[in-house]
Amino acid sequence: xxxxxxxxxxxxxxxxxxxxxxxxxxxxxxxxxxxxxxxxxxxxxxxxxxxxxxxxxxxxxxxxxxxxxxxxxxxxxxxxxxxxxxxxxxxxxxxxxxxxxxxxxxxxxxxxxxxxxxxxxxxxxxxxxxxxxxxxxxxxxxxxxxxxxxxxxxxxxxxxxxxxxxxxxxxxxxxxxxxxxxxxxxxxxxxxxxxxxxxxxxxxxxxxxxxxxxxxxxxxxxxxxxxx
Length: 228
Fold this sequence. Notes:
Number of domains: 1
Order of helices and strands: EHEHEHEHHHEHEHH
Strand content: 5-15%
Radius of gyration: 16 Å
CATH superfamily: Alpha/Beta hydrolase fold, catalytic domain
Number of strands: 6
CATH architecture: 3-Layer(aba) Sandwich
Strand order of the largest sheet: 2-1-3-4-5-6
Largest sheet: 6 strands, parallel
Oligomer: single chain
CATH topology: Rossmann fold
Shape: globular
């Protein structure tokens, strides 16, 4: 039995992985923690506190665990793998990057910063629900829980992070994923896969950014095949 730790996107929560936890929980030990400021976890959100959440779970396990991460959670997983390499068996990294997309990311943060919080939540809810109407209220609740200030603070920390010089230190197998429709992140996924010593890049047909919600069975199957 393997251990899996799922690391959600900033602005989401551990319940975004409910389908994967239900499908894989009978075969494996599964953790879906809320990062600081998300779900039931008190804030504030900082990268250091987010990494500590994952690192604490890794420390509780007798052996190494697999980290499965989405979006901003990819940076958290990479930092945890660098902090405790002996505790990580492998990485599944989707929609993330080793560094922010320069001016594009800065412009995105400025635009989001100009939006009233309610408008920001409404604007991002569809993406954070994976386009599924039945999950939109859950996504909106998660975004409101973190709040505009916490969300922008998290994006700001990601914007200042550059892990490219450190990727060679992550020796475990990695599967780097990016949705076909998540076009702006495809070059960043390629760069991430190129920088990791033992990584495969896979572009997922028909998928967007938070595709574990869009295609839950396919995402689960991808994780299961990787760890077995």
